[in-house]
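Input.
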Amino acid sequence: MIPLAWEELQALALGRLEGAPADGIVRRIHDDSREARPGDLFVALNTGVRFVDQAQTLGAATLVPDDQEAALATLASLVRGRSDAQVVAVVGSVGKTTTKDVLAALCGAVTPTVAADASRNNELGLPLTVLGLEPETRVLVAEMGMRGLGQIAELCAIARPHVAVVSSIGPEHLELVGTVERVAEANAEAIVALPPGGIAVVPADVPELQPHLHRDDIDIRRFDRAGISGEGHEWTFPLPGGDITLTLPFTARHMAENTLAALTAYDALGLSLAQAQHGASAIELSRWRGEEAPLPGGGIVVNDAYNANPTSMRAALVDLAARAGGRRRVAILGEMAELGAAAPGYHEDVGALLDELGIELVIAIGDGARP
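Output.
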């Protein structure tokens, strides 16, 4: 982290601040008491207040904030203001974390890069990501999630992105925002937040985004998912300067589509496409995204269980059918939540897809999954 003076933190009056470092400098701020060490500031979030003594015993300073969201936002804004890194905000209905993981690997292979851990993309996770900025960091890849209008705008006020990547737009959180058009509006807050000269990376096939792409003081780069070709681990991607072929550590087409979004952002940052394979070889996806585990007798389990909405469910089932080869296919599916009044219809659509794909056995969990 970019170091902060203890006196600065005291002046912020964010809550109960204890245990000044011996040299008066805080070099890392985080929320995991198990990793506490001298020079750290452990911020007690939620039930973390129970572990303040543990963090102090390990040599860290501690903060029990009066308002945890406001405290993290203030600390992260302070650190962000002292960094000249290029900040990328990754938003979208599905594929955010995979796009972030791929972009982080691509950038990290060629320049000092900090990226969000797993899916830390909310009002707590985003500031903790920003607090990872180091003096030498050149690129920060931040993920931003939303559950309603205004939330991504608040996260952008902290991170101040130069590049906004919209991975996709589809039905999500409809119980809260109402329509797919409002989903697009909420995610487009990252585009609104861009400074003049900023770059918006958006899918070419999402008409709901068009009303939000009217700024003439930013560079808008569209990626065409239909232009991807390949199979297995080798995929060819269309970019403004020409096609590029990469060998990836996964085979699913929807993962390749996320890779195109990341590649377009990587290219927009001016980083070397000639070294993209080096970064692609280092991709490590966050947990529960298409993880594959072998079974005795030649079967496999695909664990794609992090979250579900109609778009991600379709992608996972199409991928299951493709991976299965001649093997029997079993789909264990959870309920898709927060879809509001349209939920039964979306579940029925998944049922029709299961029929179309010929999935032999379906186990559906949750009352909402009955359709």
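The two ends are 49 Å apart (CA to CA).
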